Amino acid sequence: MPTTSHYCSLSELTRTSRSPDFAVCFDDDHIKTWQELTHDTQFLIGFLEQNHYQKIALCTQDSYLFTCMFLASVITQKHIVLPGNVQPAALDELSEQFDCLMVDDSVATIPNEKISIFNISALLETKEFANPIESFPLNQELSLDLVKLTLFTSGSSGAPKAIQKTLVHIENEINELEATWGKLLDNSQVQSTVSHQHIYGLLFRVLWPLCAGRAFARHNLDYPEQIMTHATKETTLVSSPALLKRMTTEYSPKHIRCVFSSGGPLSFDSAQQSNQLLGSLPIEVYGSTETGGIAFRQQWDTSTPWQLFDCIEAALNSEKCLKLISPYIDKFNWYQTADECEMVSDSQFILKGRTDRIIKIEEKRVSLVEVEKRLEQLPWIDECVVIPFEEPERLILASVIVLSNEGRSKFDTMSKGKFWLLLRSELRNWLEPIAIPRRYRILDEIPLNSQGKRLISEIEQHIKQ
């Protein structure tokens, strides 16, 4: 159960009593207090109650403005929509999903006159709207079951997929996070490299700290050097493999209270390097937008299994894919994933890969995960992504690769054609000819979004070049 003295559940947040100068959010120059949060939220409640909008899209980089608008939307029981992409064209594409769009200065103008757009910061500066609600905190619990939340999957090709949740699902997960790690985090301050627009950032960098009374950073840390500058013994870092793998030994070691990583697999080497630099072996959280958190691990060795959260029940189906009963989805019915696993015990498992990354080429089943694994076993390749690629008359495999230092030296001493032939020759030791990529492109790094998800459409563009 919740362990820290300031903790309250999300439904009780508007009833909690905190001192006016209690620190909620901070940047390098200023601390936002509980009094400022309640005052600004009150004002935004007034704005929402005087307008007819029901589906409120929030799209900001500023976590303080996001929090104020999120709370105002919850209190007024609006349907909250969180676009995963802040680019104008992407927001325009999702415009049918919401009635109005609440932004900050980071979001560019959207070329759609039918969208009602409001800048939260500008609204707070005008003080134009009277507030019919006299007080916040309110003397009643929030009705979370009446508040709908729509998030979007990201990082794959095609249109974003809308995922529907209620705030009861969110509250259940926040309570489990606090029960699992509340004592470890205690009164630390939360820094983050991931966006609150996605489920991981929403929970770990905003709502969990808010409920637990831990001050959180207003803006992202975007570079390894920023992490090292802000690293203290009282810092909890919410990050992803996309950034942690860029941490190198050129930085002097620091000590951080705790490091979380989610959004994709963190290599064993990156985990160990993070531990050396930050004095904290990353806690990896496995899950998805659809499922919420499923399990966690710290890679003490290369075979460390994933540990289910206490509230999750799991089993394998006939194809050895994980299925769940979870209070973040449906506590009565099984949810089937496409993750192939090996159960080590009733509460631990090893991930084998996704079955939806198995394709057929000329009637033969090919695992894209296996092809990537075989490429990354070669001494010349640090990282790669393999995708199916349509040529005019056939389907082939193509790969973008990041060369190791040895690979760059090898490439420089050979012609490009001979280097590709070398890769294919080595792969024949493990793979059938049909499973060997026929196109390769060398990149400095794999295109990922802030959550560590592969940007497949961008990878495809590199392949076409």
UniProtKB/TrEMBL annotation:
Signal peptide start and end residues: none
InterPro entries, per the entry: AMP-bd_C_sf, AMP-dep_synth/lig_dom, ANL_N_sf
AMP-dependent synthetase/ligase domain ranges (all copies): 18-301
SUPFAM superfamilies (UniProt xref): Acetyl-CoA synthetase-like
Pfam families: AMP-binding
PANTHER family, alphabetized: ENZYME, PUTATIVE (JCVI)-RELATED, PTHR45398
Name the record gives this protein: AMP-binding protein
Source organism of this protein record: Vibrio gallaecicus
